[in-house]
Sequence to fold (438 residues):
Amino acid sequence: MKSLVLLLFVTAIHAKHEQYSGWKSFYVNPVSFDQLLKLTSKIQELHLDFVRKAAVNREGIVVVEPKYQDDFLKFLAKEKISNRIHSDDLKERFDIDDQKIEARKLATRSINGGSLPYDNYQTLDVIYEYIDKIAEDYPEIVTLVSSSKSFQGRPLKYLKISKDKFVSNKPIIYIDAGIHAREWITIPTVTYAIHKLVENVTEPDLLDNFDWILFPVVNPDGYVFSYERDRMWRKTRSLKDWSITSFLCRGVDGNRNFNFEWNTVGADDDKCSPIYAGTKPFSESESRTVGEIIDEHVDRMVLFITMHSFGSMILYPWGNNGSLSHNAFSLHTVGINMADAMNRLSLPHFPNYVVGNSMLTIGYGTSGAAEDYAHYRGVPLTFTFELPGLENEDDESNEFSEGFHLDPIYINQVCVETWAAFVIGARRAGDLFGKKNL
Fold:
């Protein structure tokens, strides 16, 4: 029966992802900062999409539409930037991903973290059911907040976790995920943090000494759309007007929509662009909700982490121009502490984390980003995590046998190692800034 179901599923997805037929992805490896800057300077001109961010001497993966592929290859040759093919056809890669996810649904029903499995990517309904159940089962320490709604009317759910309902003056740790819809691996790292704070408490000092705000799916509309319709979807799903362009080019990049140097660099006025900044700062209810949380709790918030993928990086402000914050030493040292914690637990074929200023590490500026806004408002430690993404090479065929995105077999591993970073990050934040509000 399972074989029949899988066969029917494979048949059904054959027509899915058709819009990505002929799209290619390339490994690119800049060996100098000059090469990195030249590479990233082509992002808007050639509509490049870095699904795994490049750094100096660190391969990135970039997606290129068919009409720009010849120009892109000519540019790489001219600048002598090392490259190789990652995928000749993205549709085929996405089909592989879908088959793997469905096969794991059929083969396993394990529960590795309380009532939420960490052996596969989950639907929004499953994630929300877990959040609701945690709040219902642990009312003495968990408060569910869902007062805001997405453009399509879905509740924006986050949890406040505290031993005394935020009454005391404890420092606050904030972590979110899923503002970019397609970055599925980010979401289980935050639900796993909920599990470790509430269901399987092995570090009791984290509740004794801190209050927590955990927001697993900032962009639920986009997540559902990426899960059901378009695997590469990144933005929200809002409509700005009733024009044909707005219908065809929906949504805003939530991580370009915060009120810090909004739409000045690394963003776009084009509604069809994946990095469209919106009509104004906080035009999106999703980013606005995060901003309101920051503004409400900034006097006590000592650590802000927003989860992204891929790249195995920990990035900090300022991302718009590469200048260093007055707090740069603390940002860098705490970033190193968190990276070391993950690297110690990492699998041998996972890349080590790189830590650094956002622009100086990835070679391009970003404006209107959550990490910069939180720091601008006064949170001393703010970071963007870029989680791992990898492909396993078949030694015999010299081809890559994995799908396009991180295989679900690695979800639990990424959650465990990322939790170790949250633990050390919270403790270091407490040591450095725990009394900033006193």
